[in-house]
Design goal:
32% helix; 2 domains; 425 residues; FAD/NAD(P)-binding domain; elongated; 7-stranded mixed beta sheet; 19 strands; Helicase, Ruva Protein, domain 3; RsdA/BaiN/AoA(So)-like_dom; alpha+beta; binds flavin-adenine dinucleotide
Length: 425
């Protein structure tokens, strides 16, 4: 019979990865404790997807999913195979969360409420009898001969046979993701790749961008140009803000912008194609049609069908066409300049916002030191990792949470099996 503070598995961090890991380990019969420093579980989960929680991406082709993860993608073949996007949808549906798919295969609860996803995870853990300790701040581990022996809490300690570190990365520290788990992993001998904001809004120097704040546009092609050459392209929603640009397409390109901005001698430009579905010729035909319709209006009053109202003053100014010119007087040369502007609207990024505004941080525990099949540390026999604490880097669209479900599930299962095997010896 175990003493009250002894468990098979101790999970540190009550975010999506930790809750999934705790629930899975308990489902397999392990005696599990989940330790969370906040008074409530899942503080970050509740703000995902603007409170709607884009819980996964319905990309069921593992290869295509992995392609989204960049250079570290290969590591995730195994966890995705063990618990993929289809399993994640079935898992939540099985716990009563009806799901729906939106554009770009993004999956949300039908209720549009992240709280339903959190409740499902809580009920999963409850079914397995997980002990939940909230307002319990972990302060590090004790180790002996290549194994962890205790988890130190402020004022007490927990003894477990296996430990799962799921303390998150460093984005949005007010949710609890302050990076101390990374410090312990480093003290225990793991390499920590420097975390920096990955999915994060951009500071832009151009005044017209700030003057357009509040405008959100869908289906915009964003191109990053480095020293005049095309570097990367993303298409999707963009948002003009008081400091620069945000929105999924901007967040997804932000990590690369951060990388190229490090070299101060590089010329870095973002260009927007406001009408990516139309070729230059097609767009010119479209503009001609509008100009015919509005031939007796002034130029500044002729663009309402083509552009959102908030953007018109900036476009009129940058087109160098007199705003008061009657449309029928606009020359072909002027019109072609306008078309070019709409396909190649330029702005200069000058920096990234910080961790406090980031959706994800890249960096974390070096994947080379983690077993891909179990999430077990290659350095310590009874330490496992799950979620953002790993050197994970995914774009927006539900990929980050899927990585939490997959790695949490695998870590929970492997930790439970390790402790059950020990018990059977
Ligand atoms: C604004 C925003 C929107 C997002 N939207 C989406 C989305 O729609 N879809 C998507 O896929 N991803 C989204 N993400 C990313 C997603 O939220 C993260 O990938 C995910 O929360 C990571 O889960 P995690 O369990 O690894 O870490 P976290 O969610 O950060 O949880 C870690 C937990 O560990 C606890 N902890 C830390 N240190 C200690 C300690 N010393 N003792 C005890 N507990 C500790 C923390 O308090 C925290 O609760 C979004 C992120 C943000 C910031």
């Amino acid at each position: 019979m175990k003493k009250r503070n002894q468990f098979d598995v101790a999970v540190i961090g009550g975010g999506p990865a930790g809750m999934m890991a705790a629930g899975r380990a308990a489902e397999l019969g392990a005696r599990v404790i989940l330790v969370e420093k906040n008074p409530e579980l899942g503080k970050k989960l509740l703000i995902t997807g603007g409170g709607r929680c884009n819980l996964t991406n319905a990309e069921t082709d593992a290869r295509k999913f992995i392609e989204k993860l960049g250079k570290n993608g290969k590591f995730f073949f195994s966890p995705i195979a063990a618990f993929g996007t289809r399993q994640a949808i079935d898992f939540f549906e099985g716990l009563g969360v009806k799901t729906k798919m939106e554009d770009r295969k993004r999956v949300f609860p039908v209720s549009n409420d992240a709280a339903d996803v959190l409740e499902a995870l809580k009920s999963y853990m409850e079914k397995g009898g997980v002990t939940i300790a909230t307002e319990a701040t972990a302060a590090g581990f004790n180790k002996k001969e290549g194994r962890l022996t205790h988890l130190n809490l402020r004022g007490s300690e927990i003894e477990a046979q296996a430990y799962i570190l799921a303390t998150g990365g460093r984005s949005r520290p007010e949710t609890g993701a302050t990076g101390e788990g990374l410090k312990w992993a480093s003290a225990l001998g793991h390499t920590i790749l420097n975390p920096f904001p990955a999915l994060v809004p951009l500071k832009i120097s151009d005044g017209w961008v700030k003057q357009t704040q509040g405008l959100s546009m869908d289906n915009i092609e964003v191109t990053l140009r480095v020293n005049g050459k095309k570097d990367s392209v993303r298409t999707g929603n963009i948002l003009f803000t008081h400091f620069g640009m945000s929105g999924p397409a901007i967040l997804d390109i932000s990590k690369r912008v951060g990388e190229v901005l490090k070299d101060k001698t590089t010329e870095v430009l973002l260009t927007l194609d406001l009408k990516p579905a139309l070729s230059v010729t097609q767009l010119d035909e479209r503009v001609q049609k509008d100009f015919k319709k509005y031939q007796n209006k002034t130029f500044r009053n002729s663009l309402d069908d083509l552009l959102p109202r908030k953007l018109i003053p900036a476009i009129v100014k940058m087109s160098q066409i007199n705003p008061n010119k009657p449309v029928h007087e606009i020359t072909r040369e002027d019109r072609l300049r306008l078309v070019k502007l709409l396909k190649d609207l330029r702005m200069s990024p000058i920096g990234l916002l910080g961790f406090d505004k980031a959706i994800a941080s890249s960096g974390g525990v070096d994947l080379a030191e983690v077993d891909t099949k179990t999430m077990r540390s290659k350095i310590l026999d009874n330490l496992y990792f799950a979620g953002d604490v790993l050197d994970i880097d995914a774009p927006t669209g539900g990929f980050n949470l899927q990585l939490c479900w997959s790695t949490g599930y695998v870590a929970g299962e492997a930790a439970a099996r390790q402790t059950v095997e020990r018990d059977e010896l």
